[in-house]
Structure formats: structure tokens, C-alpha cells
Amino acid sequence: MEHGPSVLSLAIVVLAALLTPILINRLKISFLPVVVAEIIVGVVIGNSFLNIVDPNDPWLNILSTLGFIFLMFLSGLEIDFDAFIQKAGQNKKSKVLKRPLPNTLALTLSIFGGILLLSLLFAFMMSWAGIFDDVFLLVIIISTISLGVVVPTLKETNLITTQMGQIILLVAVIADLVTMIMLALYSQLYADSSQPIWLMGILVVFAVLFYFLGRVMHHAQFLKQLNNGTMQIGIRGVFALIIMLVALAEGVGAENILGAFIAGCIVSLLKPEKDMHTKLDSFGYGFFIPIFFIMVGVDLDLPSMFQDSRVFIMIPVMLAAYFLSKVIPVAVLLRYFDIKRVSAASFLLTSTLSLVIAAAVIAEQIGMISDIESGMFILSAVIACIITPVFFKQLYPVHEEVNKVINVTIIGNNQLTVPVANSIAGGLYDVKLIFHRNFSDSRGSNSENMTFHEISEYSRESLEALDAFDADILVVGANDSSINWQVAGLAKEAGVERIIYRVDDPRQEGEVRKLGYELFSTMLSSKTLLKGLIESPNMIELLSDEETSIYEIHMNNYRYDGMILRNFPFSGDIIFLRILRGQESLVPHGDTPLQVDDKIFVTGATDYVEELKRELELY
């Protein structure tokens, strides 16, 4: 009886994929990205050293190709297209800014434009010096930035939502998009294909059609019912989209990874739930992608590479080009940030891996470069990915980015606002109470964590002069509803994220909710309190007691994302009562994992709750 191809090589590679992250964890070499470690392991078991894996094994070739395709899909999925939308207030004042930022999209486009021009300059210089002749390929490789390194690094340091973090992320997103399109054009121009380049337009047309079809399916209620258990209709739909666009890309003469990348962009635009994103990451980084990266290492032949004297020139020159092409354009940020932050950003934007490997593999497949030259490009990218996140973490003053208090601005000085302001001022909250000199029912005096400001009118100029909109929370609680309406509108234009709006007229509630304000109604509160006293008098007493109050914490710290509660490092007088996650309401237990964006309800000692709030909300 004949047997099919041996699975021995596959077994070795899968075992290597399993052991690699374990070794990184046990050896405490967290500075090394897992994908880089997988390439290094592939080098050890491959052609360069042990040579125990057959690089021509059909199982490995198929799974490695699928890993490559899935990697490009996840690269497209990683792109947050909302980052291209300038949000109101995104560039408001900050303690780390020298001056207000201009339009973020225009700023990042100009930075990437500088990166592209310098990449072209370095490519021509290398061609003129006889180091490497393919200028187009060099421009792609030098100008690309690895989202797969940038995003995890920003999340790990909890900087992804900061102003500098958003600039770094948007530059990386633009670079990923543009260089992917350039790579598609490169392969179309130089591959031995009889298909005309205009056929790629068909791929774009189908991508648009699939997007609108996806929107219809995404909102179809009957399909949501098929998204659990053994059906998992959402995952099936994503895989069908990937395969169809990959097949279509090959059909029009383009590279299959272009189809996969477009599929990722479509799914990103459809805004899948975090649970689906997690499942797709699990499929990719749990199986397919590690096989691809290990096989990249297996195919590298370092002994042969280092016999070529060009490697000692090529790799240092490439590393210098990677860094200089980023540090010079990023220097424009010195107008807004200090030199430490700008230098750190330059290093992180130097990280490059996935698309360099893609470009090297494709160029080698179409005969534009040799396997030795391909190995040089991949090795330079691996070295860059090892050193750049380390320099970023060493240079960036992460601790200075974290606020120590929540800034609250309260509009109106009356019997409702003053007692509330006094009760929360101090510790976690820095309160600023602003009132009109002709409409104050009570008076207060300034304290360390609370200041009173009397103004002649509620104009934009008067409020901005007091930094009223430089607040995490703004409460419009004046007795005059027209003042509340005016100030809330100004605050929304200024980009204040949380606006709590006092409503005394029930007819105004619907309009206030539509604007996205958090509603506080004295009438509704009184009715709720009276009902509570009648139905649950002990519960009302419990909630009103400062020692047993229930607190809400918004989990923003990526350091604890995925950590189960039994491993949570904080201990103290506190009880987790409930977790709101999207549309779900969870009763927490020891094996419940925390996730970013969770709304966590706790009760316990006030001091400890404030400490926990600072840690999880990064205030």
C-alpha cells in the first residue's frame, strides 16, 4: 500500500511553533517579537544548521502559503479606517504638547510623503553605488512599516490612544496601505503574466460588491442566530471572502496576497465584534502564521549568505536606510513634542517585517532577485524588528503620559452642583466649578482639588480662557436650560468626550439623548429614588453609603487585557460585582478574563477603588 507524503517535517515545525513562545516566556526575553523568534527557530532547524526539515515538503508548502495569505489578511484587518477621520477635539491641549497639533491626517500624510521621498533617494544612491539595482523594490522595502510590530508595542505600553500613539499608528497604517499597493503594481509589472494590468480593476469592483454584501449580512438578524455553536457563520463567511478574493486576484494576474489584504480591509470596514477578531487572530497566530515564519527561517541559508561579501555592506546600509528614512521626516514633530518622544517614535516606525518578507519572497519567485539577496532583505528586517521596539521602550517617557487625576468641569453654582463637587473633589478628581456672577445660589471657596471661577458670560472665549474644555468630564448643571444647551454645544465642538447634561424639561430628553450627552434629570432621579425607597429601602441605604457604594470602572489598560481575575495582581477590600461587555452582562468569577472596553462594577473601600480606577483607566 502506497503512503502519501511524510508528515515528519510538518510535525517538527508544529512542535517548534508550540515551543517557541514557551521558551521566550521562560527565558524572559520579552523584547523579542514572537514572529522574529519563529524565524530564528526556523533558521536553527532548517538549511542553515540542523537541516531536519524538508523545505519542499508538500504539506508545509500548502500550510506555509495559507499562513502567508492569512498574515496579509490580518494586516488588512489591523487597519482602523476610523483613524483617517479627524475627530473633534482630538488635538486639544495636552500637558505633553508644546503647541496644539494641526490636522492629524494632513500631518501624518506629510510625514509618510517624506518617508517615501527619502526611500526613493536612498534607493537611487544604492543603485548608483552598485549595491543593488532594483530601485522600485528598494523603495517598497525601505518605506514600509510593520503594523504587526507597531500595534502590539503601542498596546503593551498603553500609548495607542495617546496623541503621539495615534500619530505613530496612522503613519504605519498609511505606509502599510501604500506599500501594499506598490507591491501589487511591482509584481504585476515584472511577473511573467499575460494579463493586462487594467484587469486589476475587476478586483476592486468585486471588493466593493463584497463590502456591500457583507454589510447586508452583518446586519441580518437570522445570520446572527447562526453565529454560535457548530455553525459559526461569521467565521465561515470570512474564510469564503478570503478564498474568493485570493482566487480572483490570481485570476486577474495579481498576487494572491493582494486579494487576502483586500479581504482584511473589507472585514475591518465592517467593524466585526471583538470576539470574531479574537477568533481570527487565533486561527492565524495559533497555527497558520507560525508555520509561515518558521519556514521563512528554514529557507534561509546563512552559511551561503555570509560567503557573499555583499552581505556585510547590504545589511548595515539597509538598516541605516530604514532609520534615516523615518527619523528625518518624523523630526517635524519636534514642533509639538519633546525630543525623547520624537526619537522614540522614529525608532518604532523603523520596525519592518511582514511586507519586507512578502516583497522578498515575491521578487524571488518572479526571478527579480536571487535567494541570497532575498535572505539579506529578510535578515535586515529581522534585525530591525529586534532592536527598534527595545529602543522605543527605553526612550519613550511612558510614566509621564499617564494622568494622575480626572479633570471635571462643572457649570453652575447652585444647591445641586456645589454639594456634588465638594463630595467628589480630592483624590482622584480635580474639580473646576464655573458659574455666572448673576446666577449663583450658593458660594464656595477654592481648595486644593476644587476651584471656583466667576465669569461675566458663558462665551467660548471666557470658557476657553479658564480651560473649561480641557476636561475628562464636563457637567452642565446650571439652573438655566439655555445656558446648559449653549455650553454643551461648545463643549462638544471642543471635543470633550463625556458631557453630563442636566434636564429639567422632560420634553428635551429625546433631543439631548440624540446628541450623545449623558442625561441627568432631577425629576427622573427623584422618581427613581422614591420608588427605590418604597420597594428596596435597604438597597437605597446601601447605595447611598459612601463605604458600600458601587463604582464603575472603564478598563483601558492593555496590560490586563485577557488576564483572568484569579491572576489579577491587585488584592484588597474590593468585590467585582458585574462586567458589561458589549451587549453582554457577565457575573464575574475567578476564570473570567478582563478585556479592554469592559465596564466593571465593583464595591469596596474608597481609597482602594480610586487606586484600581487609576490603574485600569490609566488616570
What do you see in this structure?
- This protein has helices spanning 8-26, 34-45, 58-77, 104-128, 135-143, 147-156, 163-190, 200-218, 221-224, 233-251, 256-269, 274-299, 302-307, 311-330, 339-350, 354-365, 371-395, 417-424, 460-465, 481-494, 509-514, 522-535, 537-544, 606-617; strands at 406-411, 429-436, 450-455, 473-476, 498-503, 518-521, 550-554, 574-581, 584-586, 599-604.
- By secondary structure, it is α/β, with parallel strands linked by helices.
- It folds into three domains: 7-87 and 101-395, Na+/H+ antiporter like fold, CATH 1.20.1530; 406-542, 3-Layer(aba) Sandwich (Rossmann fold); 546-618, Regulator of K+ conductance, C-terminal domain (Alpha-Beta Plaits, 2-Layer Sandwich).
- Helix 20 (481-494) links the parallel strand 4 (473-476) and strand 5.
- The protein is globular and about 80 Å long.
- It starts with 7 loop residues before the first helix and ends with a helix.
